[in-house]
Amino acid sequence: MGGMVLQGEDLFDLFNSSDYYDYTGVPSSAAAPCRDDSTSVVLNYFVAFFYVLVCLLSLVGNSLVVLVVAYNKGNRSVTDVYLLHLAIADLLFALTLPFWAIYRAHEWIFGNAMCKVTSVLKEVNFYSGILLLAFISIDRYLAIVCATRAATEKRHWVKFVCLGIWLFSFLISFPMAVFRYAFQYNSSLAMVCYEDIKGGETSEWRVILRILPQTFGFIIPLIIMFFCYGVTIHRLLQTKNSQKTKAMKVIIAVVLIFLLCWLPYNISLFADTLMRIKVIDESCPRRKSIDVALSSTEILGFAHSCINPIIYAFIGQKFRNNFLKILAERGIISKTVLLRYRKGSASSTSGVTSTTM
Q: Which band of pLDDT confidence, cut at 50, 70 and 90, is reported for residue 8?
């Protein structure tokens, strides 16, 4: 779509957003042009630097998670398999961050194909992440509340669940591959990676393509997580089982951090949807406020890809033990260091705990 030109209100609103939101930046037909307040160049370079830093931390941290879980294949639980796939999703997304960093600091210079690929991987990372966390909550519910430990230890079905999660995540992200293009927004050389929905009411299509993924890829998994963890935590408080309570700490931390990073963005996205379907009035100040909220909360969401390994390192004793075990077997550290950190973890049970916990 290299020859497409945006003019008038489309150009004003395109720059009011940060140029690469999934379905933002396209005003309704009744919207008046808003004054363009250009984003600070210093801020753009700072955000670009932040993305590169997150990329490096994510690549290192999630590679260690993959290494630890893969190395302890014989002692791998169902939760470990889900966390392994969660780390892989974060790794794939981290590979796109340098592209978004350059885009934020300059313009889109990577062509049409990479525009589609990076946009899809961003969506897949988000949806696979929350779906994997939802299935972890179901696994913990079955193991602790229903006491079906034997069922949770049958790991052969987990690979099919993970395959289904990946397929569903790609399917729900497919609009990014269809409607995302790299094109020139005016007569200058600057390029954007943006939606181009041809024919009909484009704003209505954007609302539909936003509501469906949010419903099935965010709200429903979130309800499942709240139910499973609510009942599970209630049961743990009743039984006062300290081992199981400790085993839940990492998972609860992972879920809370995920919500802290991505829930604000989804709330901002929901507010933008309400504005576009006229549930709330659209005005330049309100549009600008929502665009600022989307910009800032998406940065927080991008940062999520490097946080889980930090949680495992600081809270997950078994993760530290297994990582040190790998280092000791490779002769990088002495076995005395390994024995020192193994204290307190020998009594953990594989049916409730995992490599990372």
A: very low
> HSE on the CB side for 329, CA within 13 Å?
9
Could you give the CA distance from residue 317 to residue 121 in angstroms, rounded to a whole number?
31
Q: How far apart are CA 145 and CA 148, in angstroms?
A: 8
Do 276 and 203 contact (CB within 8 A), yes or no?
yes
199: left (phi over 0), alpha (psi -120 to 50) or beta: left
CA 28 from chain centre, in angstroms, equals 28
Please check whether residue 357 is in contact with residue 319, taking contact to mean a CB–CB distance below 8 angstroms: yes
| Alpha-carbon gap, residue 84 to 356, rounded angstroms | 10
Mean pLDDT of 305-321: 83
- Residue holding tokens 């209505």? 204
CA angle 351, 354, 357 (to 5 degrees): 130
pLDDT of residue 134: 92
The C-alpha angle 269, 271, 273, rounded to 5 degrees, equals 70
- 151-183 tens-digit pLDDT: 555 667 888 999 999 999 999 888 888 888 888
Report which secondary-structure segment, H or E, holds 319.
Answer: helix 317-329
